[in-house]
Amino acid sequence: MSPDCYYTWIPSPQITSHNGSEIDPSTVFFAAPPPEIGTVLSAQSGLRLDGSTVLGATGLKVVVSFTFFGMLVGGFLGGGFTNGHWVGVAIGAVVVAALFGVLMYRRELHRADCTFVGTHGIARFRFPGRNGTRARCDLMCFVDAVDLQSAFLGRNMGTNFNYQWRSESGKVLFKVEGGHFSKSRSEDPQSVLHFAQAAEAAWSAYFMPMLMAEIQRTGSCRFKTQRGIVTQQHAIVGPGFLEIVTNGKPVRFRTADIDDVVLFQGLIMIRGKNAPQHAINTADGSNGLCYLSYGCVANVKTFLMLLTHVVGIAWRNGE
User: Fold this and answer.
1) How far apart are CA 149 and CA 7, in angstroms?
2) CATH number of 220-317
3) Is residue 223 very low, low, confident or very high in pLDDT (cuts 50, 70, 90)?
4) pTM of the predicted model, to two decimals?
């Protein structure tokens, strides 16, 4: 099918791609943004005028690397089950390599999806291929969500990421996940990570006024910082203070009592001025030191913003 059959929407000049750059003129949007998401802030599509899709050299390297890794794992497992017989090694290598390759190809192919970030929601249209089928749309309006959890595996924002918006009941409304394998995010403009981060920025801009209104009304706002099934925890942010409540036991840090707040390797470390130099984290902050897992803090971007603008703490990134 020719690209003309897909050409259903043309972005206005002020709309950028999800990483903030100009949209490639050869980009073909095979779906239009739903009106429910409000004013479109950024958009991206992996389909090009020549009918090709953007998998890219990085994506191909990922697929090949994981296929080769699957071959090694499969050969090892096949040999183990057949006492080292070459037939078992060969079958295991082929089967597991094919499985790893297909799974990674399907994940990397999401780079060809058509995605939109708006002032009131986000939308993703799955690339339908060239068989003329209608693109499936995943749509989420911000009004339906209450929490965003963003988690990373690895250092420096990690190689694997998972963003999940949830409803009041805890149901997952929208998920953006994938892997980022470049040393610099700017090297891969089609990375799904750009969509996730643009969506998080739009969600934070939508959600922040609600939090500020709650602080004006009640004097504070609450963030889930769940540490697991056994430990129930949340944080309370208000003018001049941060309170960590663990299993019903509150520990309050006033701005003047906080020595440092550092974001380091997936943790938010809060150190009070009375904390011993080599304090051990007691989870509840009672010894003046507390760690919050970045991936466990709901709406973590707005949490960090409020630490600066409401609590009055200049947090920093650790080396």
Assistant:
1) 34
2) 2.30.29
3) very high
4) 0.77
